[in-house]
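Predict the 3D structure for this chain.
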Amino acid sequence: MRHTFVPPKRIRPEGLRYIRSDGKPNFSSRVYEKPSELSIIAKRPVVTITHIKPVGEAIKVMTVKGYRRLPVTTATGVLKGMLAATDIVNYFGGGEYYNIVLNRHSSNIYRALTEPVKSIMSKNPIYATTVDDLTYVIELMVKYGVGAVPIVDEETMKVYGIVTERDIVNHLREKTLGIKVSEFMTKNVITISQDSSIKEAAKTIIKMGFRRLPIVDDKGYVKGMITARSIVRFFGSNKFFEYVISGSVEEALSAPVTAAIISKIVTVNPDVDIGEAVNEMIKHNVGSVLVVEGNRLVGILTERDVMYALALKR
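Done. Predicted structure below.
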């Protein structure tokens, strides 16, 4: 079965490089050679949140579970939307959703945390059903620039499972692929100064459409990374209260990016095989590696880039 979708507001442009003139990805034979039953690949059980729950509870769930996104459902489990870490970053200072905080909650962080999830979730979620196949799920991810696709029961629309970029990378990966990191890495990496604020990082993440920003010092050396998920984790941690005195969200947003820094960074050389980069990601449980040549940052390779390489490279 195939479904009609309303595209999300932000489509990551890099995925379009791999779309044929007829609008479909140019899959490699590797995808067709691997077993593709979604009932096997999809993660179960799925952690979801109902559309009427407060944003603060979503932050707590993401922080405790370490998730980047949550399917949003009705009380009976029917899919209504998707909530991503970037939606929360958008809400807390990064983009247009911040107007809700300013106008409806007068910048009060505690009131803003009570806003229902339905106000900031993606209301037209990209989804597949249990009768669809892996190629279709990858097609959706590439075409619409999403990092996860909920799998629903075809008749009830209740959430059955979820497939993420990481699931596909693990499913398709091989020890050696014959593809260099340099072929699929993102070049001209957007970085942010360690003297910047979390608000500046949030705005950059939403404006540029990237989930990760390497943090550099005044000499250009990478000191760590800030991500949409680490910003969510900041808002769900006790560290958040160190910066909030009067209750204004601006106090939290004025915190330095180092308050939400991820110190553990993994690096690879641009000439190594992508299979080696994947092994490093899995070994260190990270979703990206920085690509360095000597002491110079020349790119970043994410799970999404690896998925494209695995699924689309001939």
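The two ends are 27 Å apart (CA to CA).
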